[in-house]
Amino acid sequence: MLKPKALGQVLASVCSGGVHTALVMNMEGGLLAFSGPSERDAVLHAAMATNAWTVYEKNGTPMRSILVEIESGAVLTVRVTPSLALCLISDESIELGILRQKGFTLAAYLEAPLKQIQA
Amino acid sequence: MKKKVLLMGKSGSGKTSMRSIIFSNYIARDTRRLGATIEVEHASVRFLGNLVLNLWDCGGQHSFMENYFTSQRDHIFRNVEVLIYVFDVESREIDADMEYYQMCIDAIKQNSKDAKVFCLIHKMDLVHEDLRDRIFEDRVAQIQHRSSPIQTTCFRTSIWDETLYQAWSSIVYALIPNVRLLEAHLDKFCSAADADEIILFEKTTFLVISHVSKWTTEDGSAVAAPLDSHRFEKISNIIKQFKISCMKAHAQFQAMEIRNGRVSVYLDMLTANTYLMMVVSDPDIQSRAALANIAAARRHFERLEESNIR
After folding, report:
1. What is one GO biological process annotated to this record (chain A) (predicted)?
2. Are B118 and B101 in contact (CB under 8 A)?
3. CATH superfamily, domain at B2-175
4. Among A56, B89, B135, B253, which residue's Cβ finds the most Cβ atoms within 10 Å?
5. Contact B285/A5, CB-based, under 8 Å?
């Protein structure tokens, strides 16, 4: 069983030093949990990120992560389990290396507990 | 598992109407076309998959009632799990009603002394609102006086509101085996999913089988939320009516999700025989997460139901 509050708190812990939004979503674009300034934006980000992900996957490349630099910062999407992904959105104040480090560490941390929910 | 449920009361008191609404998807208005029940009508109702309620809808006309207490007495009153006796609140012959009731109770005392007895004071909608409490208490006192030492549970009912569901929910609750175990599991589910309230309904009748409430304030302390204590039966009534409307429009009611600024409500099938309603007031909990939890719970409760059946 997923404890939504607990997952929210874990995501909140990564939102520092430039990362302003963190979310967990399923591969259909549905938002499972988020931490950030606006729920509406989080829902939009989840949909767009999974959209981009599935486009790449359909074209034959199995993805592990996608990092996109945008005008206001960067968006990192990391696969956590076969059906769930983590998405971190940052502003320009953070370096890409640190963003990747945060993302991959959190994904590894969440992998075991989130895998249990799928079964 | 078969359980014998006797439904008795004078002619015209509302027994067949009640049965039709709860078990046969009638709406209150449809019961107008029901005629007098002849002799005893046997209805076998499947409840929760493996429980069969043998409803003995006993025609209340004088000649049949005479039969029940003479030639058919043992046949009717033996092995009874539950006796439901219906009193028409409008009846002009209260003493005669009580006499019949006394005969039933005496027959029960002799043939099925462990039976649970429920008395429904029916057609309460025909009584003026201000007088309802007094009349109800008066009848209850008479009934309990005549029934002793058997304990009776009395309800005031009407087919036009949710009181019918409250009474019948309590009746079937008394018939479900392992209901406490089910409640313990529901309780754990409620805590695990961070939900505020979980209600379990039987699938076809939409009677409330069980519910768990854990309303908490922001700082985590428990709060007795100022909620309507009759909300469960009201929900039964509303959802059942909606389900029947869907059936009439040739659509199958499957699931529902309602969100507003203060609360989210998820209504979906839990097992083959039960429906679940989950109420979540925390606005940060996403609907996908709640639905994922219901899916996880589904597998768990299905296994539980299977082990119960075996």
Report:
1. positive regulation of TOR signaling
2. no
3. P-loop containing nucleotide triphosphate hydrolases (3.40.50.300)
4. B89
5. yes
